[in-house]
Amino acid sequence: MCGIIACAGVRRASEILYKGLCDLEYRGYDSAGISVKRGGEIVTVKRAGRVSAIECARRLGGSAGIGHTRWATHGRPSDENAHPHCRGGFSVVHNGIIENYAVLKEELIAEGDEFISQTDSEVVVHLLAKYYRGDLKEAVLRTVARLKGAFALCILHEDFEGFVAVKYRNPVIVGCGNGCFAASDMPALSGIAARVAVLKDGQIAFACEGGFTFCDFEGNAASLTFSPLPPQARSGGTAGFPHYMIKEINEIPAAIRQTAAAFETEGCARAFAKLRRKKFSQVMLCGCGTAYHAALAAAYAGEELIGVPVRAETAGEYRYRRRGSLAGTLFAAVSQSGETADTVEAARTAKAAGALVAAVTNVPYSALTSVADIVVPVRAGAEICVAATKSYCGQCAALGLMFSALAGGRHYRQAKRALGEAEGMCAGAISHCAVEDVARACASASAVYFIGRGADYPAALEGSLKLKEVSYVPGEGFPAGELKHGPIALIDGGTLTVAVITDPALAEKTASAVEQVCARGGRAAVVCAEGCEPEGLRERAEFFITVPRSALFPAIISAIPLQLIAYRTAVILGRDPDKPRNLAKSVTVE
Ligand code: F6R
């Protein structure tokens, strides 16, 4: 939620900030703003709308500055609620939530302050102005000591030539090259910073022309090691594709290959050798949205492979459930960004209860990895489209490899081979799946329901999530067997039902559900793995898409037509699949 960026010691700060905000826009696109330092003066432009709404700010120039792209939490998207917030010579951008903002605001109003916005963030600039007596560091330290919640901040002051960056529970990456930089993520620093370092919770960076100095929230000096910007942090633009979503679907084979390669590193092999020596009595998988669906899909095969109970639950539910000791539990938190607040907090809770925590994540420097005992690598590369595509397949691959590595060498080798085959199958499915007719049917349907049994049930949930989030066509995912217990009442001639069938043992059962839909006048489409086709189903369903069959990684293969259907439906309906309404990619609020 929200992207922040800062630079100092540069020639045209506004150009750098504007480009950085375009790279960060996936984090929120309700409003945008930039403040730059020109001489002793701070100039600010901010507006409701996408980053392009402040295109004019590119010409501001300046030697230092800060920028923000917002996903609204407190206060609707408007010019007043847009960041930066300015007061008393300060300008501030914030990513996170100030949980005690109401108490602070009341105190500041009682002291005579007037507030311009409805945001929680505005209290930060008021506190800075209140505590500033000519010593910037002291004002920052006194301010952060008053804040509760989660905050990544970038701060300008008219008497300081650079910027200050603060990190607590939301990410800040600092970078140096021809100048000093800070941003919410690494892709926004690509092209400007040659070397980067990740601020830790409770650290503050002071950047000016001469470089960085660091301290903790008590003011003690801290040091950080910079390393070269990793190549996977570069997004590379849309590379000739009309949208990131379709570019990233095309990158699924590479995501699988790179994830498998990451398991071969020495560090990963050592971590799994250590894990195998532990005797787990259960495995708990947690995540939100698409990451939860990857966890649910992996739980089916995982339990069969390691022979102990494996359960999956959404992180937002798990973290508030009362539980006893989790000694002997492997808790795998699945998150593309590694930033999702519910997932990170669920991992913290599980760790406190005695579980061994694994972070299954695409971002090796994220908050989740700092909580975890071990990291299970997903290497999908930078994912810019708000809807997760290649990261889902990367997560399915990583979880499959994790369970097979726990089961032992023979299983791991088998899974590696199967994953190599799945990579080729994905490439084939991306170029051969004909989804256009189904997408047209989705675009004109009153609702689209997705059904599946066994591991095809999470695939159905994911197909449904993908379609609704990028096209806004309503619908739901159901276990195929549940249809007749209520949801079938929804079926009429205006609805489309998409059935996923990749397990020959369950194919006939799901086929009966399709029959029931057709018998009620509903339209039906089937995504079916080769060799799983129930007799006569092709004739009865209006649409039939065949995909290759991967016995170990079915969810990776069936995801491809489902993601393509969602993408094409969004395009047919004129939606922007990369930036669906009301959404943001990293949900760092609870
Ligand atoms: C859907 C989607 C979301 C995320 C969810 C968790 O396409 O992207 O449902 O999967 O917000 O995000 P991460 O994986 O970053 O924890």
Description:
This protein is an alpha/beta fold and 590 residues long. The chain is 36% helix and 25% strand. The protein is built from 18 helices and 25 strands. Helix 12 (390-407) packs antiparallel against helix 18 (554-572) and helix 15 packs parallel to helix 18 (554-572). The termini are close together. The model has no long low-confidence stretch (mean pLDDT 95). Fructose -6-phosphate binds at residues 288-291, 335-337, 340, 343, 387-388, 465, 469, 586-587.
Our Rg estimate from Cα atoms comes to 25 Å
Largest sheet: 8 strands, antiparallel
Instruction: Tell how many strands the DSSP assignment holds.
Output: 25
The ligands found in this model are: fructose -6-phosphate
Beta-strand share of residues: 15-25%
Count the DSSP helices.
18
Based on helices, strands and strand pairing, what is the structural class?
alpha/beta
Q: Helix amount, in percent?
A: 25-40%
The average pLDDT value, as a whole number, equals 95
Write a brief caption for the model.
36% of the residues lie in helices and 25% in strands. It has 590 residues and is of the alpha/beta class.
Task: Present the secondary structure layout.
Layout: E1 3-8, H1 13-24, E2 31-38, E3 41-48, E4 64-70, E5 85-87, E6 90-98, H2 101-110, H3 122-131, H4 136-146, E7 149-157, E8 163-168, E9 173-177, E10 179-183, E11 193-198, E12 203-208, E13 211-216, E14 221-222, E15 227-228, H5 244-250, H6 252-262, H7 266-277, E16 282-287, H8 289-306, E17 310-314, H9 315-318, E18 329-335, H10 341-352, E19 356-361, H11 367-371, E20 374-377, H12 390-407, H13 409-432, H14 436-444, E21 447-452, H15 456-471, E22 475-479, E23 495-501, H16 507-519, E24 523-529, H17 537-540, E25 543-547, H18 554-572
Parallel strand pairs: 16-17, 16-18, 18-19, 19-20, 21-22, 21-23, 23-24, 24-25
Antiparallel strand pairs: 1-4, 1-10, 2-3, 2-4, 5-6, 6-7, 7-8, 8-12, 9-10, 9-11, 11-15, 12-13, 13-14
Helix pairs in contact: 3-4, 6-12, 6-13, 7-12, 8-12, 8-15, 12-13, 12-18, 13-18, 14-18, 15-18
The structure holds fructose -6-phosphate (F6R).
